[in-house]
Amino acid sequence: MRALVLRIVTAVALCGCKDFLNGNPQGTLNEQTLTTRSGVEGTLLAAYRMLDCTIGTQGDWGCAASDWIWGSITSDDAYKGSEGSDQSPLQDIEIYVWSTGGVEGTLNTKWRAVFEGIVRANATIRLLNKVLAVKPGEISASEASSIRGEALFLRAHYHFEAWRMWGNIPYYHANDTDFRQSNVGVNVVANLESDLDSAIALLPATPRNGQAGRATSWAAKAYKGRVQVYAQDWAGALTTLRDVQANGPYALETSYDRVWTGFAAFANGPETILAYQASANDGEPNGENANYGERLNFPHSGSPFGCCGFHQPSQNLVNSFGVDANGLPLQMSDPNWNARDANLTGADLIPVDPRLDWTVGRDVVPFKDWGLHAPGWIRSPSYGGPYSPKKNVHEKASGAQSNVGWVNTQLNSVNIHIYRYADMLLLLAEAEVEAGALENARAIVNQIRARAGQVAQGCGSGFDAAADSILRTTYPVCQTDNRIAVPLNRSPTVDSLTALWAVYRIGQYPGPWTDQAAARTAVRLERKLELAMEGQRFFDLRRWGAADTVINNYLAVEKNRRAYLISAAPFAARHSLFPIPAIQIELSRVGNEDRLVQNPGW
C-alpha cells in the first residue's frame, strides 16, 4: 500500500505569514490555478506536512513531530543531552526556567507550527467549497467528503497539540476572517469533539486512494477517545475506545522491534493510528521530507551518525526498566528501584524489561545493526549521561537513511508515531480503572506486556568492518548470528532470555486486580515503559495531576547525577501550562486589548 508522501510541491504550496496572527496565508500561485482539484489536494497535503518541522516555520526543533522537547526532556524520560553550550534554550526548558528569550523563541516555533497547520486545514476546506461551487463535478461527492473529513481531522489534531501545550487557546474555523481571536472562555474540548465527530461521519474506514497515512473514520474515532481521556470524560472514553478496540482495524505489532523501524515492510503497520510519514531520497534536494525534527537525536561523533547527541535517556528511565524475579516492574515492589547511579552496560547482567534495549542505547550492547554502543558515541558523559536515544534511529539494513542533507546520516524515513494503538489501549486501560473495571485494565496491560516479551535485541552487525570485528570478538556467538531481533525463550510463568549483555525478563500481572490505586499505578507505569522517549510522558504527568510530585522527586535525585540540574526550578502550579509566546499576544492586540491572555503565573 502506498504511503502518503508528505512533500510540499511548489505549484500548490502555501506560504504562511511570518507570524500566524499577522494575516491570511497567501498562495504562491494565482487563485484561479489553485481553484482546481489538484489545488485542493496540494493544500491538504501541505496541511499534513505540518506534522513535523518544515522549512517554512523552523527556527529550531520546537516543532518536531515527536514533541521530544515538550513531552520528554521536561519529564523523567530524558535529559536535553549533548553539552551545555549547544542549544542552551533547551536546557532552560528542561530545568523549568521558561521565561528566557531562548525558550520564548522555541515556544513560538511550536505555536507557529500548530497554528500554521490549522491555517492550512482551514484553507483546504475553503478551497474545496470554492471548487465545488465554481467547478461542479471536478471533485466527486465521495472524494469531497473524504477531503473535508481529513482537513477536519487535521484541524482537530493541531488544536489538540496547542491545547495540551497551552490549555487556553483560540479555536479557528474555516469561515473565520479575523484571526485575532480570544483564548478566554473557549470550550476547546467541545470544538475538538465536534470536528472529530464530523470527521468520523465523513471519512472512509480505509485510507483514501489506498495511501497509508491519510486519516480514516477509525483514526478520528480513536483520536476522539484520546481527547475524552485528556478531558477525564471516562464514560465517553469507554464507549469510544471500546468500540475501536472491538471493531476497529488496529492491532499491536507482532513484536516491539517493528514499532519504530526504518524497514519499509513494517511502516504503517496495524499499530499506526497517526504518524508523520517521513520520506527520504524522494528527490527533495536537502532531505527536508525526512525526519528534520529528530535530526539532533542520534549518537555523536564517535558513532556512525556523526552528530549530535541530544535527547539522552535519563538514569531514572533506565532504572525504570528493572524487573523483579517475576518479570514485573521493580518500581512496583522495591522502594530502592532508582538507587543505581552507575552506567548500566552490557557487563551488568541484571534482570530488565526487553523494551530497555529497543529504547536506550547503552555501552557494550548492540545498537540495532550498527555495532556495539560505546563511550565514544557520547558527546559529554558528565553532562548528558552515558545513554543514547534509539527509537528514532533507523537500522543500517533498512535503507532508510537519507543520501542528502545536512549530516544526512541523521535523516531517515522512520515514521514518527504521533498516536499508536498501544498508546490508545493504555488510555482505554486508564478509563477502565477509573470506571472500576480493573480486570479489563489488567487484560490490556498484560496484552501489551505479552507483545513486549516476543523479541529482544540481537547481535545485528557492525557499521563497518572494524565495528563488526569488535562486535564478534566481544560476543563470539555473533559470528554466526546477525539477527537484529531474536525470540525470547519461554518458561511456564515468565518470558526470559539470558543473553550475553542482559537478563531479559517480562511477566504478566496476576489477577484479580482489586485495588484501584494499585491498578492505576500499574497502568501509568506501563505507559512510561511502553511509550518511553516518545514525547508523551510530561503531558501524561500533567493531566494526571502528578507532575509536581513526580518531577520534584525526580529532580531531587537527578541533581546528584547531572550537576546542571541543581539549577532547576521546582515544578510549580504555573508549569501546568506553558507560557504563551509574548509575540503572539502582541500580534493579537486590537486597539488596546490583547485578545490572547497569558496563562497564570507567566
Your description of this structure?
The protein has 602 residues and is α+β, with helices and mostly antiparallel strands. It has 2 domains: 10-228 and 571-594, Alpha Horseshoe (Serine Threonine Protein Phosphatase 5, Tetratricopeptide repeat), CATH 1.25.40; 292-535, Alpha Horseshoe (Serine Threonine Protein Phosphatase 5, Tetratricopeptide repeat), CATH 1.25.40.390. It is 38% helix and 8% strand. The protein contains 19 helices and 16 strands. The chain has helices spanning 31-34, 37-49, 68-72, 88-94, 101-134, 141-166, 188-202, 217-230, 234-247, 315-320, 356-359, 381-384, 421-434, 438-452, 465-474, 516-530, 537-544, 547-558, 582-587, and strands spanning 14-15, 26-27, 78-81, 272-276, 310-313, 351-352, 360-361, 388-389, 416-420, 455-457, 485-487, 489-490, 494-498, 503-507, 589-590, 593-594. It is globular and about 70 Å long. 55% of the residues are buried.
Task: Based on the model shown, name its key terms.
single chain; 602 residues; Serine Threonine Protein Phosphatase 5, Tetratricopeptide repeat; two-stranded antiparallel sheet; 19 helices; 16 strands
Q: Brief description of this entry?
A:
This protein has about 600 residues and is of the alpha+beta class.
